[in-house]
Specification:
Blueprint lengths: L11 E8 L2 H12 L2 E6 L5 E7 L2 E8 L2 H4 L5 E8 L2 H10 L3 E9 L3 E7 L5 E7 L14 E7 L3 H12 L2 E4 L6 E5 L2 E6 L12 E7 L3 H10 L3 E9 L3 E7 L5 E7 L1
């Protein structure tokens, strides 16, 4: 049960769900992963949900406001830790990215900015103050991988390696780009041939599970749907691509 007390700059540090029905999301993910949920006020009568595993923070959730988010569908958002949200936002723009939300303080928890990479995928940067991000890994229900789907993997690779100093490599007989952040395997970039025809570029979280088939079945029982049914990837594990009942995409993986 690896407990995490800090993340190094460039690490995937937090996963956040924007939901159209916050209460339904709590029920779905609690039923699927065994997450507990607690809410805290965040202004304008809204509440922010913290999901926990074994008492440790694993992800967040908030209610999408139709007026504020202008039709943005439910989704999972990837956060990457930086020393300075302001510097990272400026650097991202100089590398061809777009600033979506200017850097701002989230109470005394941290400072963040919302960005879009040159290929079109959205992500956030997080500068730690009191909140370090996810504080547990390596157990069922925790995030274990982050995967980028983009029509231009090489353009994205150049952008992120220059922004976060990631190490990247491809296997001898694969076009899948592996990402190492802080010296650790942390995610990947799909080859362009795997990009869905109508799917916009996006980051996809993978949640570790004990039994992929059982978890995929449980997701469907709870109202989710299968995008890709459980399948075995040699040398990696068994995985399934899913959508929750509100349409937010994610994957589960039973690691080899």
């Amino acid at each position: 049960m690896p407990h995490i007390d800090s993340h190094c700059p460039g690490s995937f540090c937090w996963m956040e769900l924007g939901a159209s029905d916050q209460g339904a999301a709590k029920r779905f993910y609690g039923g699927l992963f065994g997450w507990s949920a607690s809410d805290a006020p965040m202004g304008d009568e809204a509440e922010y949900t913290i999901f926990r595993l074994e008492g440790r923070e694993v992800a967040g959730c908030y209610q999408l406001d139709p007026k504020q988010h202008l039709g943005v569908p439910p989704h999972w958002m990837t956060y990457i830790q930086v020393d300075s949200a302001d510097a990272a936002a400026e650097r991202a723009q100089s590398l061809g990215g777009k600033l979506i939300v200017d850097p701002f303080d989230v109470f005394d928890f941290g400072r963040m900015a919302s960005l879009q990479d040159p290929s079109g995928a959205y992500f956030c940067v997080w500068q730690v103050k009191k909140h370090v991000g996810a504080s547990i890994a390596g157990v069922p229900g925790a995030v274990c991988w982050n995967e980028l789907s983009t029509p231009d993997p090489e353009k994205a690779r150049i952008f992120y390696t220059q922004l976060f100093a990631w190490e990247t490599y491809t296997g001898a007989d694969s076009s899948y780009i592996h990402i190492k952040a802080g010296g650790k395997e942390a995610g990947g970039i799909l080859p362009s041939s795997s990009q869905g025809g109508e799917e916009p570029p996006h980051w996809l979280p993978y949640f570790q599970v004990e039994d992929c088939d059982a978890s995929a079945g449980r997701a469907r029982e709870l109202g989710g749907e299968w995008v890709l049914p459980p399948a075995t990837m040699p040398g990696v594990g068994r995985l399934a691509a899913l959508r929750d009942p509100q349409g937010a995409a994610f994957s589960v993986i039973q690691l080899t």
